[in-house]
Design goal:
Layout lengths: L7 E7 L5 H10 L6 E7 L6 H11 L3 E5 L8 H11 L4 E4 L5 E2 L3 H12 L3 E9 L5 E3 L9 H6 L10 E4 H4 L12 H13 L3 E12 L5 H6 L3 H18 L5 H20 L3 H13 L5 H17 L10 H17 L1
Parallel strand pairs: 1-2, 1-4, 2-3, 6-9
Antiparallel strand pairs: 4-8, 5-9, 6-7, 6-8
Helix pairs in contact: 7-9, 9-10, 10-11, 10-12
């Protein structure tokens, strides 16, 4: 039976996941679809991950693991790109080393592609924590326009929920320079070019694990490089959709970019904030009125208000505020 079905490549980047990756690989091992290969790229783990991977390659030859080439950049994006080069499948799934597949994940995603004559299929996903508690029962996937609703955050598409024809990956690789929003960058480019060639599968087939040891966590702790990567991706979406969307949708995209950019200012990186703001003005994405409104509004907020949520002003901002305050005191 497996010889009559196309090969599906499941590509997994892994780093220090000796415990969690077992559950992930077990969920792949029991797939009802027989003709798969699992390409695991180790990002030079320092725990017992390699021993775990060796065990799985011995019990099933469909598991194959390789180390990321030392000359390549460290990170999941580099591992995914390298994994694709080592893969042979007609279809590709970029999976994470801590998430789980339902038993019929590959079977149903492939069937959806065949029945709808699509280049890719997107299923729903749920989320859970390390204690097994369900955090999100199912993701929202109902849409009017797949690309527009994705870039305006009306729907959520998670990378492991994507089942992609190999022809797509030949044209769209992961950006290895990003340390945050890599999936957003990859998915928006897939949907921008191939959005009309995809099909939705309204069924939960993936369980996404939410825990502290994720890139998202470093972003929420407000480390600057992940924040800057996320802003860069929002900028790319703004740039690539300018002139292609109606005014209402484009303004939503613009607002998402501005709200993210203001966090750069609140972190005390004034030069980077104005670098992006000036580019938006020069490119015609902002009017002069919008530019001065955003500049003055968030400029004052960065000095005198603590942003809502978990973000805190940096020492640079606090020092600048004290200097401004002292100037006013001296003048009086």
């Amino acid at each position: 039976m497996s010889k009559t079905l196309p090969l599906v490549s499941v590509i997994i980047p892994v780093y220090n996941r000796a415990v969690l990756v077992k559950e992930t690989l077990d969920s792949i091992l029991v797939q009802s679809y027989p003709n798969w290969e699992c390409i695991i790229i180790d990002d030079h783990s320092t725990d017992d991950t390699l021993a775990v991977l060796n065990h799985y390659t011995k019990i099933d030859k469909r598991f194959k693991f390789f180390k990321r080439p030392s000359a390549s950049l460290k990170g999941a994006c580099s591992c995914r790109n390298y994994g694709f080069k080592r893969s042979k499948g007609d279809y590709v799934v970029y999976f994470d080393s801590d998430d789980l597949m339902y038993r019929d994940y590959i079977t149903k995603q492939y069937a959806n592609c065949v029945q709808s004559q699509s280049l890719f299929s997107i299923c729903k996903f749920s989320t859970f924590n390390n204690e097994g508690k369900i955090l999100l029962k199912e993701s929202k996937l109902f849409y009017k326009n797949l690309f527009n609703d994705f870039i305006t955050k009306k729907i959520k598409v998670n990378t492991p929920a994507l089942f992609l024809n190999r022809t797509i990956i030949k044209e769209i690789f992961y950006d290895e320079t990003l340390v945050k929003a890599q999936d957003l960058d990859f998915i928006y480019r897939v949907l921008l070019k191939f959005g009309h060639s995809g099909s939705i599968l309204n069924e939960v087939l993936v369980k996404v694990r939410i825990h502290n040891n994720r890139i998202t966590s470093s972003y929420k702790n407000f480390k600057f490089q992940p924040l800057l990567s996320s802003v860069e991706v929002k900028w790319r979406i703004l740039r690539d959709t300018h002139g292609t969307l109606d005014a209402t949708i484009f303004n939503q995209v613009k607002n998402i970019f501005i709200l993210e950019l203001k966090l750069v200012l609140f972190r005390g990186h004034f030069i980077k904030f104005y670098e992006y703001l000036n580019k938006a003005l020069r490119s015609g994405y902002l009017s002069k009125k919008e530019y001065f409104f955003i500049s003055s509004k968030y400029g004052f907020q960065s000095l005198y208000k603590i942003p809502k949520g978990i973000f805190k002003r940096s020492d640079k901002v606090k020092l600048f505020k004290r200097k401004v305050t002292n100037i006013f005191k001296n003048d009086t």
